[in-house]
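Pasting as-is:
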Amino acid sequence: MHISTTIATLLLAASSAIAAPSRRQAAAADTKVRVILRNDSGLKQEINFASVDPNISTGVSGVFTTLEVDVGADVDPTLRCAVTAGGRNDVKLFARRGANLDDTFSDSTNGEWTFDEPTAISTVVCDLDFVVRNLGTGICGT
């Protein structure tokens, strides 16, 4: 009887281990895309997208002096964003970061992009098809 009780206990423990759900869960993918717009008056507007599929846009309203792109660890690092003053199909606005002058902006963990002067922005668009243009010099903004 002692042997059958031991076997029954072992079988019960084994079946419980098989039936129990795994406690280890896969980490969720970090696919966030965040665009942060700021001005000298302290106004800050954050646009948060859950992912890029295949491109994303949203309307904003305000006059800003800087923008920053922050993407999650699982987002393609070539993702770039653009801003316009009159809607999705309007001309993209230029900003600079260091010696780079461009109308599309990446994260690259290099910080903010700056407009030469306060700039009215109405749309933020992020797209994997945007490419680096780096015009180097010139006036940017409106």
